[in-house]
Design a protein that fits this description.
Length: 97
Amino acid sequence: MNGISSREHRIIAMAFDKFEVMSAVFSYALGESQESEIREEMESLQELYDKYNKLYSELEKCIKEYEGKKKRVRTVINKGNRKLLSELQKNPPLLNF
């Protein structure tokens, strides 16, 4: 799974900031529809980036919870297995395989 590069997003955001400054100075150079399209696309891109960051944070939290639970479960299973093995050594079953 490829993630979204924060560095690349910052570069695009900086380019958009530059666009905003320049379009304010040279407002006559671009048509209203072209300027509007650029702004809408940047807003959409920013929303996706924010969504990605939120989901990534949730994924990291889930991974930490899983790792903690895995350690606890492994400990309980190993403890149970040691107890069962001890019981098996004390009282071997009468079954012949």
